[in-house]
UniProtKB/TrEMBL annotation:
It comes from Lithocarpus litseifolius. The lineage of its organism: Eukaryota, Viridiplantae, Streptophyta, Embryophyta, Tracheophyta. PANTHER family: ARM REPEAT SUPERFAMILY PROTEIN, IMPORTIN-7, 8, 11. Residues 1057-1102 have a biased composition (Acidic residues). Residues 56-80, 495-523, 1053-1102 are annotated as: Disordered. It is found in: Nucleus. This is Importin N-terminal domain-containing protein. The keyword Transport applies. GO terms for molecular function: nuclear export signal receptor activity; small GTPase binding.
Length: 1186
């Protein structure tokens, strides 16, 4: 509900809060609203002493409050009332906040505008805080808290700091936090956290915060032990939780071994250490009542655990480390009090206990992962604790989500311990128990699995047939379910190696016993537990057959066996093809031949085959492929849906193809996949993905079938396109993605096919078929009559699949062979919609390789060949549409390119290459010159703005930006010069000097393309001409620019000569390369083997050191995101400028002004010599300088 004025304040009014005169930001003492320090420090010394005696304990100082309390015994009668500021502004703000909750949008807008105006007053944040603590109703309080949160967030400066926050406001904020109701506290604490990060964490400039918070905790209702309490304990701990949250991550990435921040050490010493005594007391109190839980006590325990977790997740405060043993014993006691027998009623207090148990396990994970010195001695107790938790995995089907998450984390703790040095000694004695009583029961199929299969098949697939088990590791933090965590633990166990042994044994306990005299190398071999223990255990379970398929126990157990095989993929890769062949042939493939259908097992078998695709031996692939095809076509069995079977089969086939398997015939597979695309969105979406994989794997073999396939798919995709402006569903997006893959595959066969006349005709016919089909699809998507005009009269289409749509549009343009096809394919109409879509597109982070830029260049080429309607100027719309000129194709493209240059570093190279194409390739008439001017203005402004951001240190992005400005300058020198000067004082000189720097040897990458250097030569000649036209032509800039002009001319000559030599030598080198191919292949294989053997596994210290160096380099500006290296190799298209003879331009300039340029400047003799050698015809002008 709180969206009106509150959110409007975030978007609009908050931006006006910076500046002088705001009491919240800058004024000390401007608004006298009371001090939290005096009220928080007033208390009863006797009560403090009593509580200190009760809370003090072994290993902790206890909450000794007397030292922080005032001796003043006079107390206010109303101890919980916040001292507020009554002002006219406060009286105005409260009703306005209530008005923002109105369902009337006009009322919300009016209230928001009024709040925007009041936000400039210095007392505004104080009034918001007063209302949040004591408003008329809860809605008003939450609205005030939310507005204050957004107000604070928008007050952050560009460098991440806040303007100075007054001491009075911080005191009042803390005081309000300690007593507001929970729903307000949840919002208000976010404003506090923003201030804490800046004032306390980054600047360490809030010295009163820790002592005041300590005093508040001491004088809170659950700790004060009497009627004298002032504050709410839960609120105080929530504030502490927000205070510690920033310390859960390392604060300074530039330091490899970062010390504990002094602020965290202070919090630990003053608050956390004495709080552990309180925690121990509350744990004893909570566990003493077996049959019930107290909500407040459980909340305190949970919040303290969260605070400790944030304190130790990355750092380890020195005062906290000695108390970890006693604290961990308390956590173990909490975990021991949890019940997983499904008979417990999940009341609110017990839910808090479960959350505390979950947080306890997260603390164990953090200790084992980050603080081995502190946790090694605790590991035996931790292992015993979690073993008592994981045994309840047998009840997984009856557990609620939170209880299952606890079991999952318990598995994760064991995995972490097993990855450590003492892990084998601690865990291996329990391998048999783990596999029998914990891991395997979690894998066995249960009632919840069957229910999810029937009710939500996609959720079943996500949880039980995961595609994210590529890495089996004890350090994973993304598993979340007991089954995934148990699979991961099984994988860690299978990859662990026991002590050296000579003979295999039946279990890990036996494998750890060795004779003292066994020193023979043969008896010193380490063997994987997967071989010694896991596989023998799984082999005990019989594979289902037609005879026993009716026995539920056998089916359920074998489901668990198949799930277990999924966790052994790392182990199986290490063992070679023999193990995989045996398992697949004897334990998986027989499931596909049963007369009785077992969809639950077949789906899991599909998943296993997909996971093992990378290590399947070649001789097994054909049998596996045949079985998967059978599963892909499995129909539903009565009331049982086989959707998971078909989906998992599609994924496994894709994995098989991606790992190099080629079916004997591709067409049956294509027809089978296309034939199953139906009205079911979800399944068809998966099939489109499989189709993409098939086309990518088949490549040229599949390409001949693409025209036929495309025609079949276009109709299916069209029916899923919504008849309104809603975003397209996933099935349409994946359909477009599949078509984009197909057209790319088709385009890849062009060079080979064009050499043969018959094939060339076939290819041309196929291209026309594809173009027509794509045109029909895009017309359905973009030009449907149901799309209404937007508010400005522009035709609207949903901004979906821009990248893939551009690939289809590019294919359509490639298929155009005459002007008649422009009308047939409705190219102008499609391009108008496309240009409008890309002009408003801002989803750059969603795509790495944008086809939009290739499409832009092809649009320009198409216009140059045939002339596109509405390309340069768009025709006025017919009545009844308003006679307002609308954006043409090139104008929409111009908006896109300008935004790409200005905003997106990764697209800068490609965007700048389009600048040259758009300015120089089209033929502009006198009537359309205004369009060209507007493009040049937008491009030069965007390029110079981006250049100013990065010019402090030379980088490769300089080149495309400076060349883009050069193209604009050659078109409209005076106009672009004005834009540069407006962007920055002396901007014209900055650009000209930087352009000359591109020619120096210190700049990388050097100018190497003929077109680039030619552009620089013409631009510098124009600059020199401009400088000579000034009243005082002599000067440093003129000399530097003329020097750069000569260097550019010499460089251009060198590049042209090198290019000619390369063309002459090219044929001879090709012949030599053919002879050396075989030798190079053998050498590369040897090199690969050597590199694999020498691969070094990075240690934690090396990892931290590497990232620290990278962080330093990034801060110093050494590392700048510069886009793909491939983008830097594109040739600059100069269009009409190609016809300009740059040598004649330079000759004319020197001939006309040689007395000023040569005789009046001190030019380097080496440069003059190089220039005259390259261009002897210029020697006449340089005779006196040599």
């Amino acid at each position: 509900m709180v969206v009106g004025g509150v959110e409007m304040g975030r978007r609009r009014g908050m931006g006006k809060t910076r500046g002088k005169g705001n009491g919240y930001l800058a004024v000390e003492g401007s608004v006298a609203c009371g001090s939290v320090e005096s009220t928080m420090r007033a208390g009863s010394a006797a009560t403090a002493r009593d509580l200190a005696e009760k809370m003090s304990g072994k290993g902790a100082k206890g909450l000794k409050m007397g030292k922080t309390l005032s001796k003043d015994k006079d107390k206010d009668k109303d101890k919980k009332k916040l001292v507020t500021c009554s002002s006219r502004a406060g009286l105005q703000i409260a009703p306005l906040l209530s008005q923002t909750l109105s369902p009337d949008s006009n009322a919300v807008r009016t209230a928001s505008e009024a709040l925007d105006g009041l936000s400039l007053r210095p007392e505004f944040p104080f009034s918001l805080l007063s209302i949040a603590a004591g408003g008329e109703n809860q809605g008003q309080k939450v609205a005030a808290a939310t507005y204050l949160k957004n107000f604070t967030r928008r007050s952050i400066n560009g460098d991440g700091t806040l303007s100075k926050v007054s001491k009075e406001f911080k005191e009042q904020l803390l005081q309000a936090l300690l007593q507001v109701e929970p729903v307000v506290l949840k919002v208000l604490v976010e404003a506090f956290r923003i201030i804490v990060v800046t004032e306390f964490v980054k600047q360490n400039s809030w010295p009163e915060l820790v002592p005041d918070l300590l005093s508040a905790i001491q004088n809170s209702n659950l700790i004060s032990n009497g009627a004298d309490w002032r504050w709410n304990t839960i609120n105080a701990l929530t504030v502490l939780h927000a205070l510690l949250r920033p310390f859960q991550y390392f604060l300074n990435p530039k330091v490899a071994k970062e010390p504990v921040p002094p602020q965290l050490e202070l919090i630990a010493k003053e608050i956390l250490v004495p709080m552990l005594a309180l925690f121990h007391h509350l744990v004893e109190k909570a566990l003493a009542t077996h049959d019930r839980t107290e909500m407040e006590t459980e909340k305190v325990l949970l919040t303290i655990c969260k605070c400790i977790y944030f304190a130790v997740r990355s750092y380890m405060p020195s005062t906290l480390a000695p108390l970890l043993p006693s604290f961990c014993r308390d956590l173990i006691s909490i975990l021991g009090s949890l019940s997983f027998d499904c008979a417990v009623t999940l009341e609110d207090g017990y839910m808090m206990r479960l959350k505390t148990g979950k947080r306890s396990l997260l603390i164990f994970c953090a200790l084992v992962t980050r603080h081995r010195k502190c946790s090694d001695k605790l590991m035996p107790d931790i292992i015993n604790c979690v073993l008592n938790v994981v045994k309840y995995s047998k009840n997984i089907s009856e557990l609620d989500f939170l209880s299952e998450r606890i079991v999952s984390l318990a598995f994760d703790v064991i995995s972490r311990v097993l990855e450590t040095g003492p892990g084998w000694r601690l865990v291996s004695p329990h391998f048999t128990f783990l596999l029998d009583s914990a891991i395997f029961p979690a894998l066995v199929m249960n009632e919840k699995d069957i229910s999810e299969w029937e009710v939500d098949a996609d959720e079943y697939i996500r949880k039980n047939l995961p595609s994210d088990l590529d890495e089996i590791s004890g350090w994973r933090e993304d598993l979340f379910t007991a089954r995934k965590s148990s699979i991961n633990l099984l994988g860690v166990i299978s990859m662990s190696k026991g002590p050296p042994m000579g003979t295999s044994s039946n279990g890990p306990s036996a494998s750890s016993k060795r004779k003292k005299g066994e020193k023979n190398k043969r008896h010193n071999q380490h063997r994987y537990m997967g071989e010694l223990f896991v596989l023998p255990f799984l082999s005990k379970f019989p594979i289902p057959s037609d005879a026993n398929a009716s026995q539920t126990r056998i089916i359920n157990d074998y489901f668990g066996v198949l799930m277990a095989y999924g966790g052994l993929q790392d182990f199986l890769r290490e063992q070679g093809s023999g193990y995989v062949t045996t398992i697949v042939r004897t334990r998986v493939l027989p499931l596909y031949t049963l007369y009785v259908s077992l969809p639950y097992l077949v789906a899991t078998a599909n998943w296993i085959l997909g996971e093992l695709a990378t290590c399947l031996p070649e001789e097994m692939s054909a049998d596996v492929y045949s079985s998967l095809l059978k599963a892909l076509a499995m129909p539903d069995k009565g009331d049982i849906s086989c959707y998971p079977v078909r989906v998992s089969a599609a994924g496994a086939i894709a994995a098989l193809l991606e790992n190099g398997y080629a079916p004997p015939e591709w067409l049956p597979l294509l027809e089978g996949v296309i034939g199953r695309i139906s009205n079911e969105d979800e399944e068809s979406s998966i099939l489109f993905q499989l189709l993409s994989s098939v086309v990518e794997a088949g490549d040229e073999t599949v390409a001949v079938h693409i025209p036929y396939i495309v025609s079949s798919l276009v109709g299916a995709i069209s029916k899923w396109i919504p008849a309104n402006l809603e975003p397209w569903p996933q099935v349409v997006e994946r359909g477009f993605a599949a078509l984009a893959v197909m057209v790319q595959c088709w385009e890849n066969i062009v060079p080979e096919e064009l050499d043969q006349n018959e094939s060339s005709e076939k290819w041309t016919s196929g291209r026309a078929t594809i173009g027509g089909a794509f045109s029909a699809l895009l017309q359905r998507a973009w030009l449907s009559t149901v799309y209404q005009l937007d508010k400005e009269g522009e035709a609207s289409a949903p901004p979906s699949c821009i990248d893939d749509s551009s690939k289809l549009l590019l294919s359509i343009m490639h298929s155009v062979t005459g002007s008649n096809m422009l009308l047939e394919f409705k190219m102008s109409e499609l391009l108008l919609v496309w240009a409008d879509l890309i002009a408003d597109w801002n989803a750059w982070e969603e795509s790495e390789d944008l086809s939009v830029f290739d499409c832009i260049k092809e649009v320009v080429n198409l216009h140059s060949k045939y002339g596109l309607k509405n390309f340069l100027v768009r025709q006025m719309p017919p009545p009844p549409a308003p006679p307002v000129p609308r954006r043409s194709i090139i104008e929409g493209i111009g908006v896109f390119v300008s935004e790409a240059i200005l905003q997106y570093t990764s697209a800068t190279w490609r965007a700048c290459s389009c600048v040259h194409v758009l300015l120089h390739v089209p033929s502009y008439s006198f009537e359309t010159d205004g369009v060209k001017q507007s493009l040049a203005i937008a491009f030069s402004r965007a390029a110079f703005s981006h250049f100013r951001e990065i010019r402090s240190k030379p980088s490769s992005l300089w080149k495309p930006l400076l060349l883009a400005i050069s193209s604009c300058y050659l078109c409209y020198p005076d106009m672009v010069e004005g834009i540069l000067e407006k962007g920055e004082n002396g901007g014209f000189a900055i650009w000209a000097s930087a352009l000359g720097f591109l020619l120096t040897s210190s700049f990388e990458p050097r100018l190497s393309a003929t077109s680039e250097i030619k552009l620089v030569v013409m631009a510098l000649a124009q600059v020199v001409e401009r400088l000579l036209g000034l009243e005082k032509p002599s000067g440093v800039l003129l000399r530097d620019c003329f020097t750069s002009l000569l260097e550019a001319s010499v460089r251009l000559k060198e590049v042209q000569e090198e290019k000619e030599e390369d063309e002459d030598d090219g044929q001879a080198e090709d012949d030599d390369d053919d002879d050396d191919d075989d030798v190079d292949d053998e050498e590369s294989e040897d090199d690969d083997e050597e590199s694999e053997a020498e691969e070094h596994e990075e240690t934690e210290e090396e990892f931290l050191d590497r990232y620290a160096k990278a962080a330093v380099a990034l801060e110093n500006g050494i590392v700048i995101e510069e886009g793909d290296e491939e983008d830097q190799d594109h040739e600059t298209e100069l269009g009409s400028l190609e016809e300009v003879d740059q040598k004649r331009v330079v000759f004319s300039l020197i001939e006309k002004h040689h007395q000023v340029l040569i005789q009046g400047q001190a030019l380097p003799l080496q440069l003059i010599s190089s220039f005259v050698n390259a261009y002897p015809e210029f020697s006449l002008f340089f005779q006196q300088s040599r």
